[in-house]
Design brief:
Blueprint lengths: L5 E2 L1 H8 L3 H11 L5 E2 L6 E3 H15 L4 H11 L12 H10 L2 H30 L11 H59 L1
Antiparallel strand pairs: 1-3, 2-3
Helix pairs in contact: 4-6, 5-6
Length: 201
């Protein structure tokens, strides 16, 4: 007979001898694959969650990324996704559309697979970007390369236009400084001439 007891995070922490703070962190990262009931402080986890938490700790200790852990959990425990009262609206809708528990399980499994695939894609893209796309331009879709090339050309054109404007402004500034010096010299000459006229008068 299956264990129907519900456990709090504190109780699971004692069972696994793991700090509560660590379990809270895992809970926030992998909440969608943990069978639970309730929300907030009243949230409780089914007995299967104890084993899932244990697996999470083991896989993270092996150096697996969060995306890899999520994918493996979705493979091992597909029925747990969205289970209990704390399931997401999307999972609830999928269960209702499935026409009962049996249909709901299939929909939840699909949601788990989609989540795992999305996480894996994001991880792969991040790794490729981090390695500087070792595959070269072929590693990107043609449309993406075209868009990047177009944006780069536009940026270069804008930079060239700005450089031209800067050169024009610099020339204008030089001319204004020259005009100012000429005006100052002209005014000084006028003042000097007036002074001489007064002295002679």
């Amino acid at each position: 007979m299956a264990d129907s007891r519900l456990y709090s995070i504190a109780a699971i922490a004692k069972i696994l001898d793991v700090p509560e703070s660590t379990l809270h962190y895992w809970k926030n990262r992998f909440d969608d694959v943990l069978p639970s009931f309730g929300t907030g402080r009243g949230k409780r986890y089914r007995a299967e969650a104890v084993e899932i938490f244990r697996d999470i700790g083991a896989m993270l200790a092996q150096g697996l990324s969060a995306g890899d852990v999520r994918a493996e959990l979705a493979r091992r425990y597909p029925v747990n996704v969205g289970s209990g009262e704390a399931q997401s609206p999307a999972a609830s809708l999928a269960t209702t559309a499935g026409g009962g528990p049996a249909g709901g399980v299939d929909a939840q499994t699909m949601l788990a697979m989609a989540s795992a695939i999305g996480a894996e894609i994001a991880r792969t893209l991040a790794e490729q970007l981090g390695r500087g796309l070792p595959g070269g331009p072929a590693a990107l879709p043609e449309a993406t390369i075209t868009a990047f090339t177009s944006e780069l050309a536009e940026a270069r054109a804008e930079n060239a236009a700005l450089a031209d404007k800067m050169r024009v402004l610099e020339s204008e500034l030089v001319r204004l400084r020259k005009d100012r010096r000429e005006l100052e010299n002209h005014l000084l000459g006028k003042i000097k001439a007036l002074g001489e006229e007064r002295g002679n008068g």
